[in-house]
Amino acid sequence: MVDGSSRKRTVRGRKIRADRERKESRRARKKLARTASKVTASERTGDRPLESPDEVRPEPFVETDAVVEVRDRIDGWLEAAQPVHLIGPTGCGKTALALSAAAQRGRPVVWLNGDDAVDTAALVGAHAGGERYEEHDRFVGGVNKKTQIVRERWVDNPLSVAVGEGATLVYNEFSRSNPAAHNVLLSVFEEGVLERPGKRGEDRTIDVHPEFRAIVTSNDVEYAGVHRQQDALLDRFVGVHVGYYDGETEGEIVRAHVDLSDESVEAVVETTRTLREELEIVVGTRAAITAAKGLAVFDDDDDGGQFDDDLLAEVFTDVLSPKTASEDAESIDELRSTITEAV
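RESULT FIELD:
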């Protein structure tokens, strides 16, 4: 009669190893789940992590009565839990206003810049590869048994992070993105829920945090590259039009960016405002700042910052020539002539 004790020991040994492998596999899955649940904010947002108010506060930022009046309107609408749409010509300071208002809230800020490449996934998130966990079993000498566990990794993008964390979303150049990408905003503003297409399970949707707010900026509709957004979405915004400020405010803005004499700043601002009336192209406050920077470089006279009209005309020609319809010599000469007359 053959003794079966060695066989029983072998079978029991296999059973023990199998039980241990199952336990190790369960531990590995739990460890992977714990790791996935501890993803940091910066990992969730990819290239756009949550930023503190002090990090986004624009510097320098001029706070004249005209500027504060507009920002107070924005602050009021945000306090009323209304998403704000800042609309106005390029170079008038919409982005600085949006960031200043966002910083004023004292909540984290998420920044997003719009363009044609922005789609729904770029707003809410997408799967970004997988996480692999591997266990090596060397219980039996000379045998290396590997157990691999693969779990898909989801990365939240700006909108998901902002609604989940109660941050202020600053969506710059909002109207340059395709309107289809913004369908997800309808349920956010109307129902307080964000749906994340492509996400499975119970966390497919996110309840919007009560402190979430949105500020978007757009150029006027006649600008190239601007998309007309759907009326159903625009109906959920309040629109604040941002135009060019008065001469005093524009002067303070230029002084905050460039170290020039008062006479030079006044000449730059006056020329900017004149050209704004004379030319068909956009001559924003940004153009005044750039022209002032040019004067600071090219004016090498030792007469206390004074300069001649020819220099001022040449600087403004350089600043504005990229905006002409064509850049041939004739169009540049025509622009220079108009600027010289204005100066």
